[in-house]
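Minutes, project check-in
Item: structure for the 740-residue chain
Input as provided by the requester:
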Amino acid sequence: MRRDVLLALAAILCLLAAMAAKSLLVGIPPVRAEASAAQFDAVQAKARLARILGDQRPHPADSPENDAVRARLLTELSSIGLHPIVRDQSACNDFAKARLVACARVRNVITVIGPRVGKALLLSAHYDSVPVGPGAGDDGVGVATLLEVGSILQKQPLKRPVILLFNEGEELGLVGARAFLADPLSRNVDSLLNFEARGVTGPVTMFETSQPNGPAVAAYSKVVHRPYASSLSADVARLIPNDTDVTTYKERRWLTLNFAMTGNETRYHSPGDDVAALDSRSLQDMGDQALAVAGGLARSPPSSATGQQMFVDIARVGLWQMPRSLGAIALAILLLLFGIVAWQRQALVRTPAVLFGTLLVAVGAAWLAIALMGALVSGTYWQAHPEVAFTAVYATVVFGGLLVLLTLGARLGIQKLRAGYWLLFLLIGAALAFVAPGGIIYFLAPPAAALLGIGASRWWRVAETAGAVAALILLYVIWGELLVGLEDIFSPGPLWVVAPAAAIIIIPALVEIGNAFAGARRHALSLGSALIAIVAWTVAGFTPAYSLDREQRFTIEHVTDFTSRHSYWSIANDGAPLPQPYRSIGGWRRDKLPFSERQRWITVARAEPGVAAPTLQLLESLSHGSERTIRLRLVANGSQRIYIIAPAESRIRAAGIRDVVRSAGYSASEGKFTITCTGRSCDGTELRIDLGTPKPVVFTIVGARNGLPRAAAQLVSARPQLARPQYTPDETVAFAKIRI
């Protein structure tokens, strides 16, 4: 093979190595060896959390286990000189993004430090866990942060009250947050810091702000020394269906900053979310940011800044920000100037079209490779080492990009390709601005550097090349960090989501590599890049799928349909084939249960004595025109979690318990609607449902309780060694249809 081809392939390998090393851009600070009285001590905070979680049993809201956690939390607060109160409330919450009303009895723990006059700063975290895990990350990390920050701030002179809220019921549907809004203390709040987690490690990002975000960004940027935030993530948080307590708090229009870590989702909502797995560095990161912002807001009023800011941190060294309007103007100017450059170089239409095709082919090649791997290797084969699979995705992007550039792009020349790429890049930014305007800031610095190089080339011949290299470095730093976040969020899949952002980084690098090795043989380069991708996918395919740290999702359920009198075994996993002992039972098929859209393994099971579905007792039915209001008594029959699913034709208008009723809203009047009640207090509680029809309605009522019948012993013992329940525990489920 020719020397220039080998050098070009070596450059491609260096490019892939850089893609693999991008996580260095967002490193987590080390745990402080010794902390002064005014510094966040992650070691002490984690020790407090360990004491509160005790034996680390799951402790969902309104359960005896959460009573024990709350008692230890109260003891811990008292030990640091704080005086907590407990609010015992029944509450329901509704959602703009889902057809759901969630209800529960919750007990929020509240303590106030600082003066008792003035507008208050609220620090919020939830102390309940899901039924399947101990919740050290979600949201023990927030609990530990509030305790340590509170212990420090209480010794400092504060200008206004600081409320520490440890709410209960977030996991049920943000019910504790809704209950706090009915608390008299909430009326005095004007600022909020919320702390969450979707994993147990990784840097802590400030991913959501109040709108307009000017005051919140000013409060954050002024005091945080290692920022990790972007205005694009705030836009994405608004668009995706996921919720945190901030979703409920938004109606008060408080100044808001929302923080979370997202590393290693495989432990999230699982037994693996324990104290041992919680990364102390992530706790240190959250604590440092929380203390800085809380201290700043507690000692001085919020900034008078107004308007919308665009912002992104640069390698966690500082926060680059500018008004959104200025960013939009800068984007328009860059777009105009590159349009002129592209027109002068006769690269206004064809060249961007070729490069857009290059992006499409690169991303499409990655999508096809992922689909092929999914057909060959079932389950989340990348889970133990997602970095290996992501590297294979990026190698495929390189191959797809080279395939087009070496055929169609080679005839255009480097000057046309440079101008055409940055014009296309800016057009993508302009299109994104309509959906997520906070993302504009990602599209400014790299093309500006390239444009400066093009302009300076009149006086310095190599200026354009220097500007192109500077643009690539800026692109890597800014977009590489974005890609790290995408890898964390989409580590459960789908893997192809990272390919477009990776292609945006890789394609201009391939343009420069192609220019440096213009004489290299195209076929040899194409075959070489294809071989690199094949090797990368081969390694990904043979890398162990699961590990002790990253186990397979595997939940076992016994399900009984009391309408049809059929019972089933259900296995909710990642789609991988069941182990041999399961197959010996026979009859397994991939299917859905009548009340769930999730695909799972299902086979026939024997009915279990003593298992009963929850039921509804009609107390009152009042018709008024085309609508009807019904009052029902809920009989749990041993269920710890109850879901009442109303069909689309019921057109639910409002629902709740007793006098705590939430409106379903106009958007929720179409399609199925779910009402949930969780915890021991649900048994015997009264529900009110406002229907948009006077006709009888057939409800599906589903009840779940932790644990399995004895007949499941064989299934439990045969569960794969590197597997655990996630999102839902091993449970016994019973459901029925009730006409009311």
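Outcome recorded: The chain has three domains: 3-24+324-542, 35-89+106-315, 551-740.
No further action items on this chain.
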